[in-house]
Amino acid sequence: MKLSEAVIRAFQDTASQFGLNADKPNLTKSPYHKVESDLIVVIGLTGSKRGIFTFEYDEQLMKLIFNAMAPGMTFDMDNEIVISSLSEFSNMVAGTILRYFDQPGFNITPPTVVFGKQMRAIINSVEAFKFHFPVGSGSTVVGLSIT
Q1: 94: domain CATH number?
Q2: Is 47 helix (H, G, I), strand (E, B) or coil?
């Protein structure tokens, strides 16, 4: 399976495990791996090639994911359980991408979560592919750059 197909299928399949329907994404390219979001999960790609996955979530999707993973709990961005659940969801997607891509010699790093209002950063100075997924009333951007 191509890497782009693996990203799409992995995100949709992981979302569906939590009762979320991820529509077909819009794919864009960027000359740099930039992120602009209130919450970003960064996961490194190691092995025969190196790269970075990023997961940018809008607040509505953060709430949907958290409510699916921790029903009955109150969503609060200052709560470590909220951050942990979004980190784990992203980690599940990244692991599933590698399983579907099925190329030996790749591994992922533990996720790093960064959050704050109106953050913008360049994560990698190489071309990035961005998968813009509408999910219910929210959305996410899954970014991938390989060096």
Answers
A1: 3.40.1550.10
A2: strand
Q: Which pair of tokens denotes residue 140?
A: 């996410």
CB 77 within 8 A of CB 84: no
Work out how many domains the chain is built from and give that number: 1
The secondary structure element, H or E, covering residue 69 is helix 59-69
What tens digit of pLDDT does each residue of 14-42 get?
999 999 999 999 999 999 999 998 889 99
Q: Where are the beta strands (DSSP E) in 1-147?
A: 26-30, 33-47, 51-57, 106-108, 112-124, 128-135, 138-146
Q: Which of 3, 80, 95 is nearest to 43 (CA)?
A: 95
The residue range of the domain holding 89 is 3-146
Distance CA 45, CA 34 (A): 17
φ/ψ region of 105 (left if φ > 0, alpha if ψ in -120 to 50, else beta) reads left
Whole-angstrom Cα distance, residue 66 to residue 51? 27
Q: Is the pTM of this model over 0.85?
A: yes
pLDDT at 1 over 80: no
Q: How far is CA 21 from the centre of its chain?
A: 15
